[in-house]
Amino acid sequence: MMQMRTHTCNALRLADVGKSVKIVGWMENVREVGSNLAFVVLRDFYGTTQVVAETEDMLAIIKGLNKESTISVEGVVRERASKNPKLATGEIEVVPNKIEILGRCRYNSLPFEINRSREADETARLKYRYLDLRNPAVKKNIILRCQVVAALRAAMTEHGFLEITTPILTASSPEGARDYLVPARKHPGKFYALPQAPQQFKQLLMTSGFDRYFQIAPCFRDEDARGDRSPGEFYQLDMEMAFATQDDVFAVLEDVLPPIFAKFGTYSVASSAPFRRIPYLESMETYGSDKPDLRIDLTCKNVTKLFENSDFDALKGQTVKMVDITDCTLTRKQIEKLLTDCQVQSGSKGYWFKVDENGELAGGIGKFVGPVREELSKVLDLKPNTLVVVAAGESATKSVGVMIKTFGAACEGHMDKERYEFCWIVDFPMYEIGDESGELEFCHNPFSMPSGGMETLLKAERGELDPLDIMANQYDLVCNGVELSSGAVRNHDPEIMIKAFEMVRLGEEDVKKKFPAMYNAFCYGAPPHAGIAPGVDRMVMLLAGESSIREIIPFPMNKNAQDVMMDAPSTVEQKQLDELHIALVGQLEE
């Protein structure tokens, strides 16, 4: 034990009664009984111990301190008269003969009660994060994160992967999000970029002759926050394999992840290998999402043809998708409330009808469904007490995906919540029509190998194949409706790479200019390679059973990408701007 203490605040038991000990920690609570007795709860990283001040000298010290001051207590262990079975140290207490003040808390009141900090306003929690982290319930998530990262490192090493760190200061690269730029003092007018991912470097490692690479990689993207995405920076289990196929990547993660989820997760059940594989188009058609939560047994059915001539304008001539939910006991009020929630998430209105206990159509749009009930019953399960939710229009797929998740969680018996269910989403489209440009763009990772290679691209070039029908050797790993990672078999052939970029109006010179190292490296002979990068933050969030990713990050930013504790981003001195050859243009807000 360290010189400053003989035991931690979670170590002492009945067997230690009579021992002289020294413990240190924070004064979590003080309860005075009369004028000659005080009970102090002392807390350190490991737990708590009750200290009983019974002498005038000891009481004087305790009464002069605010809660959360740090102290050292030397004394004797004795058995407690009134035991607390809820505490590991609940059978003993320490009677001090010496108390030393190590760090005085100079504030009479705290921003929030430490053990109830999770109930406090989020801004206060982030501003005083060092106090928030004193709460054992908050600290538990950070400890879990450390344990998971250590387990991931051990598992990857056992599978023959080398942990190699890649640069943080690099060149700007079109990865799909905004870069964080860093001005280069020695090169006026030029900028480094913080890596959105180590994508190019890990592929270059494969061309360098390394066979299996991984790292717990920091990634930086200037994007908005979500419940499962932290703005600014995040970490991923980045990995790449040379001379590898999609199946090789799948085999590694299917071996690495289930034991970690089963050991550290809130739920003890996790999918075993092989994980289910679902083609992207099938996932969108069946679940209305490329991130399906397979714990939910609901699926959607496309019934567009049955409503081509409907009397209900919202369905007539529209894409119509329905989800049948058997044995549903939700009331009309509950259904309407959930549909409103779905509309907020998807941006489009949903509808419903129900088959009552007598087998009659009732509620919502039931009267408009009656004329096609016989045909509809061949597609849907319309037995008594079945609720059917309906999405229509251009956004029907997105809407029905939200409905499945919302009603699946709300309707008893349709979601097995106590498990981790993995699946692979495969066969993503290589290209899409950009919402803003209206032109062909890469759908996801531009470094993915198109299915069929050069032959497929040439068919599209000759007009024999719609570019939107080109699939990529690309895949996502999904767990409980959360996208854990994206990966791909990489496009390692410079000729195929150039042809793939030509499809989005970028020529050979553009490729050489944007990706000079990768293009040149591939020209020296590159191995086929593949990889993936599961998000560590999202993984720990799932394991901890948290709904917000900020709960598992030691020092998170707020939703506006601000660190309110450190006051970042902040202004800098003019001298610093001058050194970097930067001039601020326009009126800046305070």
Automatic annotation (TrEMBL):
<feature type="binding site">
    <location>
        <position position="221"/>
    </location>
    <ligand>
        <name>L-aspartate</name>
    </ligand>
</feature>
<feature type="binding site">
    <location>
        <begin position="221"/>
        <end position="223"/>
    </location>
    <ligand>
        <name>ATP</name>
    </ligand>
</feature>
<keyword id="KW-0067">ATP-binding</keyword>
<dbReference type="GO" id="GO:0006422">
    <property type="term" value="P:aspartyl-tRNA aminoacylation"/>
</dbReference>
<keyword id="KW-0648">Protein biosynthesis</keyword>
<dbReference type="Pfam" id="PF02938">
    <property type="entry name" value="GAD"/>
</dbReference>
<dbReference type="InterPro" id="IPR004524">
    <property type="entry name" value="Asp-tRNA-ligase_1"/>
</dbReference>
<feature type="binding site">
    <location>
        <position position="483"/>
    </location>
    <ligand>
        <name>ATP</name>
    </ligand>
</feature>
<comment type="similarity">
    <text>Belongs to the class-II aminoacyl-tRNA synthetase family. Type 1 subfamily.</text>
</comment>
<dbReference type="Pfam" id="PF01336">
    <property type="entry name" value="tRNA_anti-codon"/>
</dbReference>
<dbReference type="InterPro" id="IPR004365">
    <property type="entry name" value="NA-bd_OB_tRNA"/>
</dbReference>
<dbReference type="InterPro" id="IPR002312">
    <property type="entry name" value="Asp/Asn-tRNA-synth_IIb"/>
</dbReference>
<dbReference type="InterPro" id="IPR004364">
    <property type="entry name" value="Aa-tRNA-synt_II"/>
</dbReference>
<dbReference type="InterPro" id="IPR045864">
    <property type="entry name" value="aa-tRNA-synth_II/BPL/LPL"/>
</dbReference>
<dbReference type="GO" id="GO:0140096">
    <property type="term" value="F:catalytic activity, acting on a protein"/>
</dbReference>
<protein>
    <recommendedName>
        <fullName>Aspartate--tRNA ligase</fullName>
        <ecNumber>6.1.1.12</ecNumber>
    </recommendedName>
</protein>
<dbReference type="Pfam" id="PF00152">
    <property type="entry name" value="tRNA-synt_2"/>
</dbReference>
<comment type="subunit">
    <text>Homodimer.</text>
</comment>
<dbReference type="InterPro" id="IPR029351">
    <property type="entry name" value="GAD_dom"/>
</dbReference>
<dbReference type="GO" id="GO:0003676">
    <property type="term" value="F:nucleic acid binding"/>
</dbReference>
<comment type="function">
    <text>Catalyzes the attachment of L-aspartate to tRNA(Asp) in a two-step reaction: L-aspartate is first activated by ATP to form Asp-AMP and then transferred to the acceptor end of tRNA(Asp).</text>
</comment>
<feature type="binding site">
    <location>
        <position position="175"/>
    </location>
    <ligand>
        <name>L-aspartate</name>
    </ligand>
</feature>
<dbReference type="InterPro" id="IPR047089">
    <property type="entry name" value="Asp-tRNA-ligase_1_N"/>
</dbReference>
<feature type="domain" description="Aminoacyl-transfer RNA synthetases class-II family profile">
    <location>
        <begin position="148"/>
        <end position="554"/>
    </location>
</feature>
<dbReference type="InterPro" id="IPR047090">
    <property type="entry name" value="AspRS_core"/>
</dbReference>
<feature type="binding site">
    <location>
        <position position="444"/>
    </location>
    <ligand>
        <name>L-aspartate</name>
    </ligand>
</feature>
<keyword id="KW-0963">Cytoplasm</keyword>
<dbReference type="InterPro" id="IPR006195">
    <property type="entry name" value="aa-tRNA-synth_II"/>
</dbReference>
<keyword id="KW-0436">Ligase</keyword>
<dbReference type="GO" id="GO:0005524">
    <property type="term" value="F:ATP binding"/>
</dbReference>
<dbReference type="InterPro" id="IPR004115">
    <property type="entry name" value="GAD-like_sf"/>
</dbReference>
<feature type="binding site">
    <location>
        <begin position="535"/>
        <end position="538"/>
    </location>
    <ligand>
        <name>ATP</name>
    </ligand>
</feature>
<dbReference type="GO" id="GO:0004815">
    <property type="term" value="F:aspartate-tRNA ligase activity"/>
</dbReference>
<feature type="binding site">
    <location>
        <position position="490"/>
    </location>
    <ligand>
        <name>L-aspartate</name>
    </ligand>
</feature>
<feature type="region of interest" description="Aspartate">
    <location>
        <begin position="199"/>
        <end position="202"/>
    </location>
</feature>
<dbReference type="GO" id="GO:0016740">
    <property type="term" value="F:transferase activity"/>
</dbReference>
<keyword id="KW-0030">Aminoacyl-tRNA synthetase</keyword>
<dbReference type="GO" id="GO:0005737">
    <property type="term" value="C:cytoplasm"/>
</dbReference>
<keyword id="KW-0614">Plasmid</keyword>
<dbReference type="InterPro" id="IPR012340">
    <property type="entry name" value="NA-bd_OB-fold"/>
</dbReference>
<keyword id="KW-0547">Nucleotide-binding</keyword>
